[in-house]
Each structure stands twice: as C-alpha cells, then as structure tokens.
Write a structure and sequence with these properties.
Blueprint: H1 4-13, H2 20-33, H3 37-44, H4 47-55, H5 62-76, H6 82-88, H7 91-99, H8 107-117, H9 121-133, H10 138-146, H11 159-166, H12 170-176, H13 183-187, H14 197-210, H15 217-221, H16 227-232, H17 243-248, H18 266-278, H19 283-291, H20 294-304, H21 308-322, H22 340-375
C-alpha cells in the first residue's frame, strides 16, 4: 500500500479546489483501491481519504463525482467499513440531503450506499438517527418511494431495500403499522410492481419484518388492510381450482386467467411464504388463513416450484395450514419457551435440512447443465 508520504501527496489532490485532471487521476486511483479487499482494508485506516470521497461528491466534474460514488458503494458493501464511514465522515447528512433533491442525478447511488450502510442493526440505527437529525421523517421517505417520477433522473428503486433494512428497528415497524397513518396500505401494491424486482423485494422484505410484530396480525388480515391477496397473488398461478375452492378465496384470487404468472424471483417467493408463515403464529391468524382458503393456492404452488429452499418454506406453511391446532397455552407460536435441549435438536435438524437443500440445489444445477449440453452439444467447442 501507500507509504505515509505517498498517502499525504495523494490526499492533497483530493480537494475541491484542485485542477480537474489531477483530481480525476487521484479519484481514479482511490476507486481502484476499493475494488479489492486489501485496498478497502487499507482505506479503513485512512479516514481522511473517506472524508475526501464524501466531500468530492459535490465536485463540478460529473466524472469525478461518479468515481467517488462508485468508490463509496464498494466501501459501503464491506461491513468492516460501516463504522468508519458513519463515524469519521459526513456521509449520512450528505446522502440524505442529496436524496431529497428531485433533480439529483446520482440519487440511485445514494440509495445503494444507504441500503448497504443499513444492512446490519448497529449502523442501521445510525442511519435512522441521521434521518431524524436531518428532519427527514419516515413519512417523507415513504412519500418519495410512492411518488412515481419524484426524481426524473433516478428510479429510486433501492429505497425499497432501504425501507426493509430500517424495519429491523421497532421504531420503523411501529410507524409503518400505525393504524392512523395507512402506510402499509400504500406499500402493498408494490408486491406486484413489474418494473423492478429490487423495489418488489424491498417491499416484501418490509412486510415480512413488520409481521414479526404478531400483535398486529389480526388487523393486517382484516378488511382494513387485507394483506392476504397481496401476498398470495404473486404466488398464484393459472391452475384451475374447484368451484368450492374458488368460492372460499379472497375475491382477487378467484378464477385467475390462463395467462397468470408467478413471481419470477425465488428469493422474493421465499420471503412471501415466510411472511405468510409469520401470520400463522397466532390462533386467530391461522383461523383467518384457513377460512380464506390459502391452502389450495399453496398446494398448486408446491407442484410448480423447483427451488429446494422455497419448496421447504412452502412445506412448513402447508404443515401449519393442514395440521392440528397446538395444545391449550401454546396457541401463540411466537411466545413459546423452547427448552435448551429441544432447541439444540432443532438447530441440528435445521443444519441437516440446509445440507440436504444445498445437495438438492447442486443436483438441480447439474441436471440443468446436462440438459443444456444435450440440447446444445457443440456448446463447449464454441
């Protein structure tokens, strides 16, 4: 890495008042350092370089600003850089200020950096606190997210994962689940937002996190919110159900057309099922989901799904839907105190299940590779 004198010289070029060509070479060099682990680790010990990168996001040169943002995205992707970036620089106030500007052309990069920095709970709280200090309410964040074309130069799709990360915190969940604000009702349609898998995934992750607060389950499943169709529609296909099965479903899921398709992303499908599973934690939640005929949708989904981990999640949900009710006093699955020896056995079973799933995944990949070779035998020679 750089010697002390080389680092000092390079730092002298990373200022707003330096000539653009010299400054551009310096930012290009720093960007190169962020492209590998050793370079990131070196910059972790050099807070002055981190500060300079944040400062130069205000440079007049678009090329220099682009390099700085690219470098900051690389750095924020490294968990060990989160604390230095948040503590040693003005990155959070700068990012939030730029995010609020509807003309800011690098707003998507801002969203990516904030999403990276909020991934883990410790720095997620720092991001949340900075949001409040900048007098940017969560209401404003949701408003921007739900306003199509808020920024004509950026899609802001990564606000979805940012919102999902923020729902690690009880304060954010409390805001989204506030019955007077109707925030969650505004987010629900984005579970079927065709234009962006990132935005869809962010909203589904947000809903899943909010469903850990089981006290709100009955409200979420009631007509006031009606969360079920928004979780089930992406999982429903064109299969014909019996008249009796259709009659019991929510209206939006009855008699779906022949061209109905399912959510294409397996990670989102898995999160949707995990959200449904969370909603079965209480006795009333299970009753409502059985009354709403969730089982036939999941039965047909199970026949269609190919990803082992998604199949496993689906099977857990189906077991709850068709299984007997727990004994009296054990109706709330989230309040059960599991003995240590039993918990250890569950962990061992989970480990074995994970190993089996990975084995099945490898087998699936191998079969697909063989199928590809059989349909394209000359593929390896090209």
């Amino acid at each position: 890495m750089l010697s002390d004198s080389e680092a000092k010289d390079l730092l002298s070029f990373l200022r707003l008042d330096v000539r653009a060509d010299v400054k551009g070479q310096a930012t290009e060099y720093i960007l190169g350092l962020t492209g590998n682990r050793d370079g990131c680790r070196y910059l972790r010990t050099q807070p002055e370089f981190l500060k300079a990168l944040v400062t130069l996001t205000a440079d007049p040169s678009i090329a220099i600003v682009k390099d700085c943002y690219h470098a900051l995205i690389n750095l924020s992707a490294d968990e060990t850089l989160h604390k230095p970036l948040v503590k040693e620089t003005e990155i959070l106030p700068t990012m939030f200020k730029n995010l609020l500007n509807p003309e800011y052309m690098f707003a998507d990069r801002v969203c990516t950096i904030l999403t990276n920095l909020s991934r883990h709970e410790a720095t997620c709280r720092e991001v949340f606190q900075a949001l409040q200090k900048q007098e940017i309410s969560l209401a404003k964040m949701v408003e921007i997210f739900c306003t199509v074309g808020f920024n004509k130069k950026a899609s802001l799709h990564y606000l979805g994962p940012l919102l999902s990360n923020l729902t690690q915190l009880p304060e954010t969940r409390q805001f989204i689940l506030d019955k007077e604000r109707c925030v969650i009702q505004r987010l629900l349609p984005y579970t079927q937002y065709d234009a962006s898998v990132t935005r869809r995934g962010g909203v589904v992750g947000t809903l899943r996190n909010c469903c850990f607060d089981y006290a709100h389950h009955e409200w979420l499943l009631s007509d006031s919110v009606d969360i079920l169709p928004f979780l089930l529609l992406p999982l429903a296909g064109p299969e014909e159900l019996s008249e009796e099965e259709n009659e019991g479903l929510p209206v939006d899921l009855q008699y779906l057309p022949e061209d109905k398709t399912r959510e294409e992303d397996p990670d989102i499908r898995k999160m949707l099922i995990e959200t449904l599973l969370l909603l079965t934690a209480t006795k009333r939640g299970r009753q409502i989901m059985k009354e709403k005929n969730v089982y036939p949708i999941m039965r047909e989904f199970h026949k269609w799904e190919k990803e082992p981990q998604v199949i496993s999640a689906c099977e857990k949900l189906v077991q709850v839907l068709i299984g007997d009710e727990p004994e009296q006093g054990m109706e709330n699955l989230m309040e059960l105190n599991i003995p240590e020896d039993v918990e250890q056995k569950f962990k061992e079973l989970d480990t074995k299940e994970q190993e089996q799933l990975e084995k099945e995944q490898q087998e699936l990949l191998r079969e697909e590779a063989e199928k590809h070779l059989n349909t394209n035998p000359e593929g390896l020679e090209r």
